[in-house]
Amino acid sequence: xxxxxxxxxxxxxxxxxxxxxxxxxxxxxxxxxxxxxxxxxxxxxxxxxxxxxxxxxxxxxxxxxxxxxxxxxxxxxxxxxxxxxxxxxxxxxxxxxxxxxxxxxxxxxxxxxxxxxxxxxxxxxxxxxxxxxxxxxxxxxxxxxxxxxxxxxxxxxxxxxxxxxxxxxxxxxxxxxxxxxxxxxxxxxxxxxxxxxxxxxxxxxxxxxxxxxxxxxxxxxxxxxxxxxxxxxxxxxxxxxxxxxxxxxxxxxxxxxxxxxxxxxxxxxxxxxxxxxxxxxxxxxxxxxxxxxxxxxxxxxxxxxxxxxxxxxxxxxxxxxxxxxxxxxxxxxxxxxxxxxxxxxxxxxxxxxxxxxxxxxxxxxxxxxxxxxxxxxxxxxxxxxxxxxxxxxxxxxxxxxxxxxxxxxxxxxxxxxxxxxxxxxxxxxxxxxxxxxxxxxxxxxxxxxxxxxxxxxxxxxxxxxxxxxxxxxxxxxxxxxxxxxxxxxxxxxxxxxxxxxxxxxxxxxxxxxxxxxxxxxxxxxxxxxxxxxxxxxxxxxxxxxxxxxxxxxxxxxxxxxxxxxxxxxxxxxxxxxxxxxxxxxxxxxxxxxxxxxxxxxxxxxxxxxxxxxx
Length: 614
What we know:
By secondary structure, this protein is mainly alpha-helical. It has 24 helices and 5 strands. Helix 5 runs parallel beside helix 17 (346-369) and helix 8 runs antiparallel to helix 9.
């Protein structure tokens, strides 16, 4: 991808561009089809409510409120404001856009590793469909995956300062969305650098190990600076974003390790199909000795080495290494093409490719098409009424939601429901909201997790009431368990509206909610995804073209560059006082981030007198 493009080569580049466009369109349709077919208006995945309240609260109060992953809300707020999109449309659309971009990045990395046309097309298909395991809510992980694939492909370019700087920018943009996975990505690339050092007979100041370490070091400085900068401002809103986060906060190391092990042994066959593993192992032997080839091999090695560490120590969930192991589908594609190359008959080759590709993609498709939104109409109606009730109280009034799933170990549901409620309240009041849970279920059953969660919640509420006074308590039927849903069931307090009760001095609900959480629609999410993908490509094209000579592969990696540019620019601008809520600030950020790439390309082209990527 790194040579100067001659007119003849640019003419040959057109089939690749057409195939990449077809690949991207097919993946985007695949990801969007459940939303369009079923008319879903809310995003998939249990983590989706987290991104919704990160956007809403971060836009209203500043990115310092949302914690240690400032890149994701900065990127989504920039896209939402510049394109006039709702949070629900952005989160759902990003699931589809990022999955598509993973497919394009997988194709680019396979191409850099020496794959021929059939090989990188299959890598794009398999890598893109494999992204479903992160697309259902794990947007920070998926954002880093797109950036990492782009950085790995760019480092496969011919050695130059530009490719090193570009890789650092991509890694930094992705790392700001998920600093923990930045450590994993740095480990993979660090392994590549050490490997390259061992296999090179001649080394100089700009050889492969030096370039990779320079990119990691520069990206690490940017990520650290961004995370530290995001601490300035209103204090972080302490909230558990997952059951894992609660178990870690509560010091329940044993249940946390058990949860990690259970998920790994229960899910690993779904992530790694039986067919893909032998094909990937065969593909390992078919990768050429290059930076991209060594990246794929190192990715497998680090994943295999990290899994037992996670299982034994409980420091991280081992199954998340599997969901990030995009090297496996890429290598499986290379192995599949190498296998079919040995078949003489064309019909046999086509049958084997189609059959094995279907065997590796159908399970992922089954998983994706089986998704449903985690925020449904009835809970949303009740949460909107609660929003009206909170809007009628004075700022600083404590609001406590009584939650009761109705069974002994409700940790997952309590955290999920708490994040849904936090995403629906007036964004400026999110810090006033607390959640309570009884130490035992209505039937008397309990667990150590439940008792610890109940005690921690009670202590937090007591500390807050000591400062702000008695809280207004709210109970929603949707979050009260099956016992409370039975006809004639008793509820404490006063019924404000069907399914909503208030305990304490409750005011009359406001006539209208404050900035309510509204669902989108299937067509709305499709339009949001198309517009976001177009903006990411436009914002990243100038930066990508400054590094990559081939037009087709510039287009394929433009979204990754756009993600990095908008993330870094959005976070930097917000830290310097440019608000990311509304339309003006995000539009300015998008113009500066995208326009900067075209200015750089123009300057480099004028200096070189030719293609700046040459």
